[in-house]
Design a protein that fits this description.
This protein has no helices and 25 strands. With 346 residues, the chain is mainly beta. The strands form 7 sheets. It has a 7-stranded mixed beta sheet with strand order 12-11-10-3-2-18-19, with no helix packed on it. A 5-stranded antiparallel beta sheet has the order 13-8-5-14-15, with no helix packed on it. Strands 20-21-25-24 form a 4-stranded antiparallel beta sheet, with no helix packed on it.
């Protein structure tokens, strides 16, 4: 598959497309049959991630005026979902390698042939490591599946055990029952830190404005992140409650051309997305340093990747220009001369 890298520079500001989120991703969810339910997590980054302070939940119902899972910090979590909801964490010392996937079983049958690394329910696959039920966490007692077919949401989040707020890592919602979706707008919590002053969450995307995936996929299928869209291109990257500052609730999870997920595709536990790592882009320069109205501006960039056949493009306020691979990993492009006094952002 051909890839394209887009370079946007504004005083040496780079944005790459397609690139990768700077955090773990929920790459696949299976909601039916109950005996095959699982959540797959993907590490798109170049280094291993320590999962010790990472949690997984489907309990975002509003309880006591706030999404239930946020109560992990102050002990106000209430078991929800009539025995099917959960709030668990990864075992201390657990890691996920770069480019790797882990599968977390949410079913209650050890005989189900799903290659799960971890299991939420104690009834899950015998070869899987149990997730930890933390203080203020819980696992519903259902002996069936734990994930709702028609409508629900799953959140991977981070909490170090000391701060007032949790940090969303990745989120997926499906179906039309927005009561199960997450919105922390206006919520404040006071965790176990030294002071007694609550900290407020930033605004999430209102549940009615979120763009969920479709629910009720067929047996043997899944809700799966697109292979051609490994980054969260429809997500708001700033001003959010995410671990990297994203608004994780703003992503388009639909199966439209701009959406991030595909519904009703064959499930692929452990193989949901390409294990491709991001490109390395360095040595970005331009010449001449102070151009005149008769000068073309030459852009240089060194681009390396573990695949071939990719393209590179410079985006500017005077137009977008394809770069040429002139030698080895060196790519160049020319911006045309501009009238005196033109402010060029590229």
């Amino acid at each position: 598959m051909q890839k394209s890298f887009l370079i946007i520079l504004g005083l040496v500001l780079l944005v790459f497309t397609p690139g990768f989120a700077a955090h773990l991703l929920i790459s696949e969810v299976v909601v039916t049959p109950s005996s095959a339910e699982y959540i797959e997590i993907y590490n798109p980054g170049p280094t291993a991630v320590d999962l010790t302070n990472y949690y997984l939940t489907d309990s975002m119902d509003v309880v006591g005026g706030k999404p239930n899972y946020t109560g992990i910090v102050d002990g106000t979590v209430t078991p929800t979902g009539a025995g099917t909801d959960f709030l668990v964490k990864f075992p201390n010392g657990a890691t996920i390698a770069p480019g790797a996937y882990i599968v977390i079983s949410a079913n209650a049958f050890s005989s189900q042939d799903i290659p799960a690394t971890y299991k939420i329910s104690t009834y899950g696959p015998s070869t899987a490591t149990p997730m930890v039920v933390p203080t203020n966490g819980f696992v519903g007692g259902s002996t069936n599946g734990l994930i709702s077919n028609a409508s629900e949401a799953v959140m991977l989040f981070y909490w170090d055990g000391t701060t007032d707020t949790v940090k969303d890592v990745d989120y997926v919602c499906w179906g039309t029952s927005v009561a199960y979706f997450c919105d922390k707008t206006g919520v404040s919590t006071d965790g176990p830190d030294a002071d007694s002053t609550p900290t407020s969450y930033l605004a999430d995307t209102p549940t009615g404005n979120q763009k969920p995936a479709a629910g009720n996929h067929a047996a043997g299928y899944s809700i799966q992140r697109k292979q051609t869209n490994p980054i969260e291109v429809t997500e708001t990257f700033t001003g959010g409650n995410g671990l990297t500052g994203h608004d994780e609730t703003s992503e388009d999870f639909t199966a439209t051309a701009s959406g991030s997920f595909i519904q009703s595709v064959l499930r692929t536990p452990g193989y949901g997305m390409p294990s491709d790592l991001p490109p390395t882009i360095s040595g970005t320069l331009y010449s001449p340093g102070i151009p005149t109205s008769t000068d073309s501006i030459l852009i240089y960039a060194t681009v390396t990747d573990d695949t071939t056949g990719f393209t590179v493009q410079v985006k500017s306020n005077v137009g977008n220009y394809s770069m040429s691979n002139v030698s080895g990993n060196l790519w160049t492009a020319y911006l045309p001369p501009q009238p005196d006094g033109t402010d060029i952002n590229f």
